[in-house]
User: Which sequence fits this backbone?
């Protein structure tokens, strides 16, 4: 038994490899471009944390590495909360934008920005 994707108008569409071919190079690059900025941010965050920990371990010892770890954890909690609000707003903003309701999109954007 295979996986199935439901569509309101067409009914159930089976997930098969032949339906998943992307032949348009421009579309593939645009899909990859959507996730590239988040990937680069995660990589640079990890590299900077590695560099800070290596420097602190050499010059400050375990106490400084532990303090930096706690600071990074607290920073990540705030970052996750902000990211959650932004991700939660995407469906509402997308719906309003798709309905050409720019006034609703603007209100939602201002609400999330505050």
Assistant:
């Amino acid at each position: 038994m295979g996986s199935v994707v439901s569509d309101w108008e067409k009914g159930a569409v089976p997930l098969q490899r032949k339906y998943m071919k992307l032949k348009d190079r421009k579309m593939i690059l645009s899909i990859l471009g959507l996730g590239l900025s988040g990937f680069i941010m995660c990589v640079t965050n990890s590299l900077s944390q590695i560099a800070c920990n290596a420097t602190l371990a050499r010059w400050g010892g375990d106490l400084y590495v532990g303090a930096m770890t706690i600071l990074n954890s607290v920073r990540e909690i705030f970052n996750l909360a902000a990211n959650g609000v932004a991700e939660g707003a995407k469906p509402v903003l997308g719906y309003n934008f798709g309905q050409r309701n720019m006034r609703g999109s603007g209100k939602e954007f201002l609400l999330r920005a505050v």
Summary: DSSP finds three helices and two strands in the chain.
